[in-house]
Amino acid sequence: MGIGRRRILFVISAPSGTGKTTICERILQKIPDLKMSVSHTTRKQRPGERHGIDYYFVDKETFQEMIKNEDFVEWAEVYGNFYGTSKKVINELLSGGSDILLDIDTQGAKNIKKLYPASVLIFILPPSIKELERRLKKRNEEEETIRKRIEKASEEISQYIFYDYVIINDDLERAVSEVFCVICAERLKKDRINGKLMDKFKNGR
Amino acid sequence: MGIGRRRILFVISAPSGTGKTTICERILQKIPDLKMSVSHTTRKQRPGERHGIDYYFVDKETFQEMIKNEDFVEWAEVYGNFYGTSKKVINELLSGGSDILLDIDTQGAKNIKKLYPASVLIFILPPSIKELERRLKKRNEEEETIRKRIEKASEEISQYIFYDYVIINDDLERAVSEVFCVICAERLKKDRINGKLMDKFKNGR
Fold first, then answer.
1. pLDDT digits (tens, 9 = 90+) for B44-64
2. Residue A203 maps to a domain
3. How many domains would you assign to chain A?
4. How many A-B residue pairs are in contact by the CB < 8 A criterion?
5. How confident is the model at residue B200 (pLDDT cuts 50, 70, 90)?
6. Which 3 state secondary structure label does DSSP give B142?
């Protein structure tokens, strides 16, 4: 039904190992008019990854230049690699009429909220730290990597307070449908209606 | 998953003929732990209606007495009959741990929001006034009744501005799933988490 409404920026954050990537993939399948923003990164391109689809792969010099030019709405260094969300990418998607899904960390999410106060921040939690540890071990990650990630996860979980929604991924199907409901509900908010709803009912008579 | 959270009062309003009753019935089937609050009314009991389930049927004297005693969170006179939502009924449901669904008019909804600022107000719209008129005619209502209802509907629609969510019922299935999503999403709001989420993650280790 065509009530005009403002476009929405959805942000999903979750500690590594929480299932965020799978959830995002499933959500994009379920909501085809939701677009994932593609990040810039200095991390090495892995086999199968496509430039401009999975990431924009750039070298450190280019990334530093972009930081200087304030081209990013948010950027972060994670395990020695840089990741950033370009203003240009976001603005092109918004002006193209899309709602946007961003997959970024808690620090980036806070920056987004400052720049776009109407954005919607969703935090995905593992059922427990113990379960997160079990999942990371199953991935055959190194002891040291697991330790670092658990430490980072605990730190990140304490940031849930800055988010609008908190979803626990103890069942993937449920977590996916909960994220789906959040996106659906946010699109129905009265505050997002753009223009004069009443006109529709005056003209409709 | 057991994060403790505060109970929620959901209010649904819609002009007569918008399909609100059907939507509420379907939502209660889909969400068994959501309880409909039973209203008091002075309107005559219709065949098949059950006291204490469809309404609490009371006489005008009892109703007036309850108004005097401030027993209602909201009450209204509609076409010569009185309808009211009793504080006692609401409080018993809330202390029983239920989320509540209230089916009340725009004036009542505004009172609820004043008394319970964390309540969630959902407004259901017909696709257009013309379609509403067609639906009312199909019910074989009298000319005069239809005229009155259309007038009231136009007045009510202008009140959408006080609501949190606006849903258009041009397709029943979609409208039901949109109300479902609103209820699901509201239950996931960080602000509704009761107590210390972090404790769970400290203990869980």
1. 999 999 999 999 999 999 999
2. no
3. 1
4. 106
5. low
6. coil
**Is residue A156 one of the residues assigned to a domain?**
yes
Task: Provide the CATH number for the domain around residue B152.
Answer: 3.40.50.300
Tens of pLDDT along B139-197? 777 888 888 888 888 888 999 999 999 999 999 999 999 999 999 999 999 999 876 66
pLDDT, tens digit, for every residue of A115-142? 899 999 999 999 888 888 888 888 777 8
A164 touches chain B (CB under 8 A): yes
pLDDT at B2 over 60: no
Token reading at B87:
């504080």
pTM: 0.88
Interface residue A178 vs chain B (CB under 8 A): yes
Cβ pair A9, A160 in contact under 8 A: no
Residue of A nearest to B161 (CA): A190
Higher pLDDT, B3 or A104: A104
B80 Rama sector, left if φ>0, alpha if ψ -120 to 50, beta otherwise: left
Query: Which residues in chain A have Cβ-Cβ distances shorter than 8 Å to B188?
Result: 165-167, 178, 181-182
The answer to whether residue B116 sits within a structural domain is: yes
Task: Compute the half-sphere exposure of residue A110: CA atoms within 13 Å on the CB side of its CA.
Answer: 8
Q: Let me know if residue A2 belongs to a domain.
A: no
ipTM of the complex: 0.87
What residues contact A188, with CB distance under 8 A and at least 6 apart?
Answer: B165, B166, B167, B178, B181, B182
Domain that holds residue B158: 9-37+99-203
Q: Do residues A104 and A112 make contact, with C-beta atoms less than 8 angstroms apart?
A: yes
- Could you give the CA distance from residue A83 to residue A57 in angstroms, rounded to a whole number? 10
